[in-house]
Structure formats: structure tokens, C-alpha cells
TrEMBL record:
The lineage of its organism: Eukaryota, Metazoa, Ecdysozoa, Arthropoda, Chelicerata. It catalyses: L-serine = pyruvate + NH4(+). InterPro entries: Ser/Thr_Dehydratase, Ser/Thr_deHydtase_PyrdxlP-BS, TrpB-like_PALP, TrpB-like_PALP_sf. Gene3D superfamilies: 3.40.50.1100. Belongs to the serine/threonine dehydratase family. This is L-serine ammonia-lyase. PANTHER family: CATABOLIC L-SERINE_THREONINE DEHYDRATASE, THREONINE DEHYDRATASE, MITOCHONDRIAL-RELATED. Its EC number is 4.3.1.17. PROSITE patterns: DEHYDRATASE_SER_THR. Keywords: Lyase, Pyridoxal phosphate. Its cofactor is pyridoxal 5'-phosphate. Residues 13-142 form the Tryptophan synthase beta chain-like PALP domain. The keyword Lyase applies. It comes from the Eukaryota.
Length: 143
């Protein structure tokens, strides 16, 4: 429970509401979890916040991740909350609006590769060579 209390300071408890139109459509209650109300705008903040806290517990001062948007915005928010710096590797096709939203406040953004997989390979490579904590956008037991 202690771990949850730490994470709770980063993400918020979002409401669960019933959607009348969807409930009527499928003839049973449909509930929506409003994760879009998280400070970073998506559910990614929940799992990634705990993973990044594990990085801090291990002594890391810098994070690196790959993203096309939501995960990067979560890492930026978390890094700022934990007083860490971070680098986000994005594919070259990432819109300038997303790059602008990710950059600043101790966050460096690097465009690399034509697709996310290539950007992610670069993030993992830099993490190993520079000794930076790699934050996978998904596919980790903590997340």
C-alpha cells in the first residue's frame, strides 16, 4: 500500500461514470473511466509513475523513453514531479505540436527514425551507453 501512496501523489483518482447513450445501445450498464483527466492527459501516467519512482529508488537522475505522444507526456510530467531530467525519442513523423508539448522543463526531445520502433531502439541504446534509466511506454511488469 505504501507504493500506491507514493504514486497517488503523481496521478489522480479519476471518476468512473455511467454513459447513458452507450448503456442504452448495448442494453446494459457501461461505465467510462475518465483517465483523460490525468494531468498528462492519459492513463499512461498511472503505471509509468511507479516505474519512474523505481528508477529514483535505484538512484537514477535521468530518464529516457520513446513515444509518439501520450507516454512522452506522462514521462515529462513525472520527471518534473520527481525533479529529474528526461529525454524523449520520437519518430520523425511526430507532429510539431507534440514535440513542442514534450520539450522544455528539463526535457530534451530527439527526432529519430521513421517509425516508433526505430525511435525506441535508439532510446534503449542511449540508455545503455549513457547509463540512463529506460522507461518503456508499455510492456513492463510494473506498468
Amino acid at each position: 500500500m505504501e507504493d500506491y501512496q507514493i504514486s497517488k501523489n503523481i496521478f489522480i483518482e479519476t471518476p468512473l461514470i455511467e454513459s447513458e447513450p452507450l448503456s442504452k445501445l448495448v442494453k446494459r450498464p457501461v461505465f467510462l473511466k475518465l483517465e483523460n483527466l490525468q494531468p498528462s492527459g492519459s492513463f499512461k501516467l498511472r503505471g509509468l509513475s511507479r516505474l519512474c519512482q523505481e528508477a529514483v529508488e535505484k538512484g537514477y537522475k535521468k530518464l529516457i523513453s520513446s513515444s509518439g505522444g501520450n507516454a512522452g507526456l506522462a514521462v515529462k510530467y513525472i520527471a518534473n514531479k520527481l525533479n529529474l531530467s528526461a529525454t524523449i525519442i520520437v519518430p520523425e513523423v511526430t507532429s510539431q505540436n507534440i514535440v513542442d508539448a514534450l520539450a522544455g522543463d528539463g526535457i530534451d526531445v530527439i527526432r529519430h527514425g521513421s517509425v516508433w520502433n526505430i525511435a525506441d531502439e535508439k532510446a534503449q541504446e542511449l540508455a545503455k551507453t549513457l547509463g540512463i534509466f529506460y522507461v518503456t511506454p508499455f510492456d513492463h511488469p510494473t506498468i
